[in-house]
Amino acid sequence: MNVRQQLMAVIEQLSDEKLSPLLDLAILLKNKEKSYLLTESQAYQDWVSAENDIYDEFFADELTAR
Fold first, then answer.
1. Residues near 13 by beta carbon (within 8 Å), at least 6 away in sequence
2. 14-29 pLDDT, tens per residue?
């Protein structure tokens, strides 16, 4: 499975709320804004924040099995 397919598989499982920062990040990458580091962008900060932890939601089945 290539990167695009993997990303689409994950995206299909995310809520609109969780997709919003990803959309901002994708637009940033598309526009190739180089005026600042990617890690300084608000979209990136939102995406990696503890409030946007997708792993608990994504792996909920495995967490309850333990």
1. 57, 58
2. 888 888 888 888 887 8
